[in-house]
């Protein structure tokens, strides 16, 4: 099947479209993740880091980073012929957080990327989605040379609720990213079903 068309003799499938956010700290791999999995050329709003931003853009641990997202990254992936995900990567620096409310409008769920060298950088994203009751999954982006810890140790360090999925992933690898996105969709569906049950009982 080609996207937007169906096989001869079959009625066209109208796909369900879902919005997923990709959040986390500065330099954690959000732009890379969206680019690794998007079937369209990703829309990026990256600008070069400047000397003026040096006091507020902490590049320790990501010294090779020369650009930063100032609005959002946008990509699309078709998981099945009837299921399309729109991906919105949020800006990581605190001065752009005012955009998160706009980007999170109508989102099914989120992937919060974490880097074990700078775990504290994802606290704000975890807190944001917890406060707004938006289901999320934490994906620990396995950078070259970054220390590896057992999943339960990372969960404890992030003070995550037991119900929040946490997995190791590689933001550069399409299959790894797809697994994380499928995990978010499954978690969000289970979260919604549980919430409906609580409301009706």
From TrEMBL:
<comment type="similarity">
    <text>Belongs to the GPN-loop GTPase family.</text>
</comment>
<dbReference type="Pfam" id="PF03029">
    <property type="entry name" value="ATP_bind_1"/>
</dbReference>
<keyword id="KW-0547">Nucleotide-binding</keyword>
<dbReference type="InterPro" id="IPR004130">
    <property type="entry name" value="Gpn"/>
</dbReference>
<protein>
    <submittedName>
        <fullName>ATP/GTP-binding protein</fullName>
    </submittedName>
</protein>
<keyword id="KW-0342">GTP-binding</keyword>
<dbReference type="InterPro" id="IPR027417">
    <property type="entry name" value="P-loop_NTPase"/>
</dbReference>
<dbReference type="InterPro" id="IPR052705">
    <property type="entry name" value="Gliding_Motility_GTPase"/>
</dbReference>
<keyword id="KW-0378">Hydrolase</keyword>
């Amino acid at each position: 099947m080609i996207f937007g068309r169906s096989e001869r003799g079959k009625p066209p499938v109208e796909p369900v479209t879902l919005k997923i956010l990709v959040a986390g700290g500065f330099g954690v791999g959000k732009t890379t993740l969206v680019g690794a999995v998007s079937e369209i050329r990703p829309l990026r709003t990256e600008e070069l880091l400047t000397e003026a931003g040096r006091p507020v853009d902490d590049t320790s641990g990501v010294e090779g980073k020369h650009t930063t997202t100032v609005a959002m990254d946008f990509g699309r992936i078709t998981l099945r012929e009837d299921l399309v995900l729109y991906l919105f990567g949020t800006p990581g620096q605190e001065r752009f957080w005012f955009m998160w409310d706009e980007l999170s409008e109508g989102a099914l769920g989120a992937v919060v990327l974490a880097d074990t060298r700078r775990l504290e950088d994802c606290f704000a994203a975890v807190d944001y989605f917890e406060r707004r009751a938006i289901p999320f999954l934490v994906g620990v982006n396995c950078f070259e040379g970054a220390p590896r810890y057992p999943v339960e140790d990372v969960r404890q360090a992030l003070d995550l609720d037991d119900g929040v999925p946490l997995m190791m992933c590689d933001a550069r690898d399409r299959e790894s990213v797809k697994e994380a996105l499928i995990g978010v969709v499954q978690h969000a569906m289970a979260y919604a079903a549980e919430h409906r049950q609580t409301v009706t009982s």
